[in-house]
Amino acid sequence: MKLSDQLLPMVLWTAALFLVFYLFRHYNQSRSPRVNVRIGIVFSLAAWLTNWVWYRNMEMKGIHLVELVMVSLPIFIMPMMRYYCEKCREHYAKTSVYVLDASKYYQLANHSDNFSFLLELDLKYLPETGPKETKEIIKVDFYCCESCGSNSIIDIDSYTWSRTSEHKWYIRESIHKHNTHNRSVTSRQKGLVQGAYLDADTGSKLKQYLVG
Q: How open is the CA angle 41-140-83, to the nearest 5 degrees?
């Protein structure tokens, strides 16, 4: 069997999977990551059991690993669903902002039984230049329907914030800085809040402040 004959089913199968999962991700209205992951597992098993890739006579090294990666793609794609407003029939808009003083976030969060304390925080977009010393910051992902503004949702995560290192070997460093020097770099540490709904008043005020 020619190499091209061996690769063709894999290429066609991969293209078909990407198309199916792209369309599903775009039109899916589920807001539950757990449900979406389960759907992804079902899709993965269905793709494997239908045996879209004929590899019985293949002698290519790693072909089973490639097949495993292909059938596992939905599991990674499904949790990345976009929230959907059934009332307005449109997907939510997403805005990501940061609390650069993590201690302030924890202080207010520990003394509140809802998320109205977010209105008291200084929510900023990530600065282009990172800090001299690595520090903890809080990322707030705000999701809302731009049409009606109801049922706003937030994800909150803890991140470390640092800057890219200077290139000591760069020519004429003392005169001209490379454009990648000191850029902000973030790394997710842990999730604090996942898929939480905001009360109507807090959601409306945050939408007005972050989205307009």
A: 40
- 123 with 140: CB under 8 angstroms? yes
Backbone angles phi, psi at 203, to 5 degrees: -60, -40
d(CA 62, CA 71): 15
Name the residue among 119, 126, 114, 140 with its Cα closest to residue 192.
140
**Over its length of 212 residues, how does the chain's per-residue pLDDT go in tens digits?**
555 666 676 677 767 777 777 777 677 666 666 777 777 777 777 766 665 545 554 555 555 666 666 666 666 766 666 787 878 888 889 999 999 999 999 999 988 888 999 999 999 999 998 998 999 999 999 999 998 888 899 999 999 999 887 655 445 554 445 556 778 999 999 999 988 999 999 999 999 998 87
Asked whether the beta carbons of 6 and 58 are under 8 A apart, the reply is yes
Positive or negative torsion for Cα 122, 128, 130, 136: positive
Of 157, 79, 189, 19, the closest CA to residue 11 belongs to: 19
Supply 136's token pair: 């903890």
DSSP string of 61-87, one letter each residue: TTHHHHHHHHHHHHHHHGGGPPPEETT
CA distance 141 to 95: 6
